[in-house]
Automatic annotation (TrEMBL), chain A:
The keyword Ribosomal protein is assigned to this record: no
Pfam families attached to this UniProt entry: CTLH, LisH
Protein name per its UniProtKB record: Protein tyrosine kinase
Domain CTLH: 59-116
Keywords, ordered alphabetically: Kinase, Transferase
From TrEMBL, chain B:
Keyword Repeat: yes
SUPFAM superfamilies per the UniProt record, alphabetical: ARM repeat
Compartments it resides in: Cytoplasm; Nucleus
Official protein name in the record: Armadillo beta-catenin-like repeat family protein
Alphabetized UniProt keyword annotations: Cytoplasm, Nucleus, Repeat
Origin: domain of life: Eukaryota
Gene Ontology terms: biological process: proteasome-mediated ubiquitin-dependent protein catabolic process
GO cellular component: cytoplasm; GID complex; nucleus
InterPro entries documented for this protein: ARM-like (IPR011989), ARM-type_fold (IPR016024), Armadillo (IPR000225), ARMC8/Vid28 (IPR038739)
Length: 224, 669
């Protein structure tokens, strides 16, 4: 089946006809900054572009304090802060709470404090597993870390990665946003996903200049 | 630091809580409260621990003291008090979250009035804390119900609804949803303008929307007047708002909006009549089936409620691939019990009327999953699976094609007859009733795995529903069974039990018992002897019930029994003849025979006529004798008057009988 070929000239002409307002773009940027929690940037952007945030920036400050505590490895502080913000969040999100406790254990292991880690696992994590069977598998993996001398290079070493942190931080951020009736995902990623999906769909029918690197957003001529 | 560190042990902390000597003061108290709060949030084990240490009454006393101290200082709260109140309130709310003992402790300690009083505090953080904690408490069934018929309660709730604070309005919505029980209460709330307020609050944040939607549904539920008034509000503005919300970006909101519209549709159908809106609801709910968490768990229940008994909507659901979606979720590993129950109930509903739906469920994978569900730990799931099977087996086509002959099904269902839960037993009986009709293989499987003895056992139950369904199952089992099986069933049942079932206090059970006997003697001359055994205990019972004529159904079945017996030997025919037309001459008492022939009920006339068809069979030697008796008794006259019976079946039987009579007369002459 032969596909339709669209030249770069044609394509650029069609693109030119599509109108996007600056106001809309600003809104998207603001939405991104606000959802991800970049308070200072949001404030500056507000001043410079005149775009109003759709959320009270004060609440972002609270949320960012929580995130910062978590990222600096001070999980207990993050828990206290989120409980001050809204005590019902952790009470109604058992999986999130488990992940926070899990992170606490990971930090104790990371600091080499094996005795305290064991005590904590016994007192705090094991009951979570007893209360909810779904957590058992993850619990076992985390506790297994204690069996290894070289934790960073053991089979479950990825638990000590930054990525684990970020996962939990993201989960916490989403829970706070939901409790504040704010959408937990920024709109920008959705738009990019749409773009990639639309291109994939079009690939089946036509040959055209594609955006292959979304950060560069350059039209690349189709391979002949 | 783990809680076991030096001065943060639960016992120590608890000791510091409270009011008066021994307890901590000021900053130390605040610290202790905060520490306890942070330990218990999210942590069921710690909550229970502190509960047992008696922390709750102490914290409530702190709240009470701090709350009144705030009042005393003329509304100018010292910062410390506000902080203490916030921590105490938050801790109390957490105790009430997800732990029943915690709710009880909180209620027993008298927390509710204190939390209520801080709702009017001027510090927004205090109000938030109080509102959140109360909302947590009111999510439990154990929470007290507000009698909204009392003016001060209603006014209090109205003041909460007027607040700018979303936590407070959500609390009000929560209390109303929890407390609204009677029609009167619903009307009182509607009269006070609560529904209008909710509709205006629908423009708020999504959490607020959700709270309002739940409350609207509770106030409208099953109340035609309130529902109609709501639907008329602002020329349908309220209904439009709901219709928009079923397409809200949040799945939870969509589900709650659907539930609201379904509630309106039930209470005042004329407002949600158009197929268009109903179709949209079907579509939205079918999409929500795939949502994770609570939304996906509840969606199938709402779908079932929406389409219940509505064949048109069943078709709509089918057209949007509801069955495929439901089956694919069924096939996922480790489905939560509540969701599984919902899926099975929705499938059962879809199979209740449409053959097409039943056929779609006939694949071995799906059937195996349903069989697995029969042994699920959760009773509700077992019931739902039985209902599913019962409805699938309404398909005569599939039954006849020999599907579902596998032993697994039947054995599993028979096991459920021993289930500790009556609801499960009833549901299993329902499924078995359908399965044992019409297929010799299935009947013998049931008999082999000891099903008959359990059915007999249940037929003697004190519970009339169990009796009724088990007798129905036995009746279906008996229907067209082969002679060996018939004998076996009767032997297990015993004539004595059968007779007592004919005399059962419930008419429906009498009917089933009689139908069972019909099936026993049907087409089986050897089996007729049982009717006369033990001094005709069975036949006597049949006759007595015919004479009592307690219900039309009983009479119909009784006459079918007689007509089946009359299809037998000469002496059988004579026996029936003697019962129907007693040999007293000049009897002024009309026998029930003529009464039945004159009945308005078609089936009764038909059943009675069949007796005479068999009694006047020209191939039988004594038939002409019997015809003469019929003439003497005036029955032939009665039959002649029925030549133009409005029912075709009756007309044909009457003609048949009269033709047979004429044939016999001609033969004699």
């Amino acid at each position: 089946m032969s596909k339709k070929v669209i030249t770069r000239e044609e394509w650029e002409r069609k693109l030119k006809d599509v109108k996007i307002s600056k106001k809309d773009m600003n809104k998207l940027v603001m939405n991104f900054l606000v959802t991800e929690g970049f308070v200072d940037a949001a404030e500056k952007f507000w001043i410079e572009s005149g775009t109003e945030p759709d959320i009270d920036l004060a609440t972002i400050t609270d949320r960012m304090a929580v995130k910062k505590a978590l990222q600096s490895g001070n999980v207990e502080d993050a828990i206290e802060k989120v409980n001050d913000l809204n005590p019902t969040i952790l009470d109604t999100n058992p999986q999130l709470y488990f992940h926070l406790q899990q992170q606490r254990l990971i930090e104790l292991i990371r600091s080499g404090n094996v005795e305290e880690a064991l005590e904590f696992a016994q007192e705090e994590l094991v009951p979570r597993g007893e209360e909810n069977q779904n957590f058992l598998e993850e619990l076992e993996r985390t506790v297994a870390l204690l069996a290894f001398d070289d934790v960073k290079n053991c089979p479950y070493g990825e638990l000590l990665d930054v990525s684990q942190h970020l996962k939990t931080a993201s989960e916490l951020n989403a829970a706070i946003l939901t409790s504040q009736s704010h959408e937990k995902d920024p709109k920008l990623p959705t738009l990019l996903k749409m773009l990639i999906w639309a291109q994939n769909q079009l690939d089946e029918k036509a040959v055209y200049p594609r955006i292959n690197d979304i950060t560069a957003a350059i039209l690349e001529d189709p391979a002949v | 630091m783990p809680a076991s560190a030096a001065n943060n042990r639960p016992e120590d902390l608890t000791a510091r809580l409270g009011v008066g000597a021994g307890a901590a003061q000021g900053e130390a108290l605040l610290k202790a409260l905060r520490e306890v709060k942070n330990q218990i949030i999210g942590n069921k084990t710690k909550k229970l621990l502190y509960l047992h240490l008696g922390a709750v009454p102490k914290i409530v006393s702190v709240l009470a003291a701090a709350g009144s101290a705030s009042d005393d200082s003329g509304g100018i709260s010292r910062g410390g008090d506000a902080a203490v109140i916030v921590q105490a309130a938050a801790a109390i709310g957490s105790f009430a979250c997800g732990v029943e003992d915690g709710v009880r402790a909180v209620l027993d300690a008298g927390a509710v009035p204190h939390l209520t009083s801080i709702l009017s505090h001027h510090d927004e953080k205090v109000v938030d804390a109080g509102a959140r904690s109360l909302k947590m408490i009111f999510q439990s069934e154990l929470a007290p119900k507000y009698d909204v018929l009392q003016e001060e309660n209603l006014n209090f709730l109205l003041s909460l609804l007027d607040s700018d604070n979303e936590n407070v309005t959500e609390l009000a919505a929560s209390i109303i949803a929890h407390s609204c029980e009677t029609n009167e209460q619903q009307k009182a709330l509607c009269d006070a303008g609560v529904l209008l307020r909710f509709v205006s609050l629908l423009g708020g944040s999504s959490n607020q929307k959700d709270g309002c939607l739940e409350s609207i549904a509770a106030v409208i539920k099953n109340n035609t007047e309130v529902s109609s008034r709501f639907s008329c509000t602002g020329n349908g503005k309220a209904l439009n708002a709901l219709a928009n919300l079923i397409q809200d970006r949040y799945p939870q909101t969509r589900l709650l909006a659907c539930k609201c519209l379904i509630a309106v549709g039930h209470a005042s159908p004329c407002y949600v009549e158009e197929l268009q809106i109903k179709t949209k609801l079907v579509l939205v709910l079918v999409e929500l089936l795939e949502e994770p968490g609570r939304v996906g768990n509840e969606a199938p229940f709402s779908l079932k409620t929406l389409i219940a008994d509505d064949e048109e909507l069943h078709k709509q659901a089918l057209s949007v691939n509801a069955i495929e979606k439901l089956c694919s979720i069924l096939q996922m590993s480790s489905v939560q019990a509540r969701r599984l129950q919902g899926i099975l109930l929705a499938l059962a509903e879809l199979c209740s009327k449409l053959e097409k739906c039943r056929c779609q469920l006939m694949s071995p994978q799906v059937l195996n999953l349903i069989v697995d569900a029969l042994k699920h730990d959760c009773m509700d799931v077992r019931v739902a699976a039985c209902n599913c099977i019962r409805n699938i087996t309404r398909s005569l086509k599939n039954l006849s094609a020999g599907c579902l002959s596998s032993e697994a099904f039947i054995v599993r269902l028979v096991q459920l007859l021993h289930d500790p839960s009556t609801s499960v037993q009833i549901a299993a009986l329902g499924a078995l009733c359908n399965i044992v009709i019409n297929c010799a293989t299935r009947k013998s499987v049931l008999i082999k795995c000891g099903g008959v003895s359990q059915l007999v056992q249940l037929s003697k139950s004190m519970d009339s529903v169990l009796r009724s369904k088990s007798v129905l199952a036995l009746r279906n089992l008996m229907f067209l069974a082969d002679i060996t099986d018939k004998e076996f069933i009767l032997k297990e049942l015993t004539l004595c039990t059968l007779a007592s079932l004919i005399y059962d206090s419930e008419c429906s059970i009498q009917e089933q018992a009689l139908a069972l006997i019909s099936g026993l003697v049907d087409g089986c001359s050897q089996s007729v002897k049982h009717v006369f055994a033990q001094d005709s205990i069975i036949l006597d019972a049949v006759m007595r019930q015919l004479q009592n004529a307690s219900s039309i159904g009983v009479c119909i079945q009784g006459m079918f029994v007689l007509s089946n017996i009359a299809a037998g030997s000469e002496s059988d025919k004579d026996t029936v003849m003697n019962y129907l037309v007693p040999p007293q001459t000049d009897s002024c008492i009309p026998s029930f025979t003529i009464k039945f022939l004159q009945s308005k009920d078609i089936l009764l006339r038909v059943a009675s006529l069949w007796c005479f068809v068999n009694l006047t069979d020209p191939a039988s030697v004594g038939s002409s004798r019997r015809v003469a008796r019929l003439q003497d008794a005036g029955i032939v006259l009665q039959l002649k008057s029925m030549l133009n019976d409005p029912c075709l079946d009756c007309k044909l039987r009457v003609r048949m009988i009269l033709e047979q009579c004429m044939e016999l007369e001609t033969a004699q002459a």
